[in-house]
Amino acid sequence: ALAAQPSAESSSDALIGKWKADYEMEGEAFRVVYEFTLANGQLVGYARSMQDARDEESTNTLVMDNIVFLDGRGTANYSIDYEGERYEVEATLELTRPDRLTVRYSYYGYAEEEVWHKMK
Q1: What is the DSSP letter of 26?
Q2: 111: pLDDT strictly greater than 90
Q3: How far apart are CA 50 and CA 65, in angstroms?
Q4: Whether the Cβ atoms of residue 80 and residue 89 lie closer than 8 Å to each other
Q5: Does the domain made of 12-118 have the CATH classification 1.10.3470.10?
Q6: What pLDDT does residue 11 have?
Q7: In this structure, is the dihedral angle defined by the CA atoms of residues 80, 82, 84 and 87, taken in order, positive or negative?
Q8: Dihedral, 8, 12, 17, 21 alpha carbons, nearest 10
Q9: How many CA atoms lie within 13 A of 49 on its CB side?
Q10: Could you tell me which of 13, 8, 6 has the C-alpha nearest to residue 36?
Q11: For the residues 44-61, what does the mean pLDDT come to?
């Protein structure tokens, strides 16, 4: 008998590709495009670009690694920028729909939730 294969939706394959998230900071709206890709067989996440009302800049910054993802849920180390400083936090990942990823983390007592949308 064939071994049951985990469905692509539930495994890390579901994350591979580009995602976008919209943010607001100090009244300024901006969008970040992320991409999950495999590096040496390990799933990693990059911030590929950041776009605001004025311009778009390429970033190509590694923002997520140590990703463990199964059955639509997982954990990762997530690097965030706050007021010019870079912090690494433990994040939980939840694929609430095939095209929607919720990223949750807390730092300094603040619970944060981001929603990333899969790009076509």
Answers
A1: T
A2: yes
A3: 19
A4: yes
A5: no
A6: 78
A7: negative
A8: 120
A9: 9
A10: 13
A11: 93
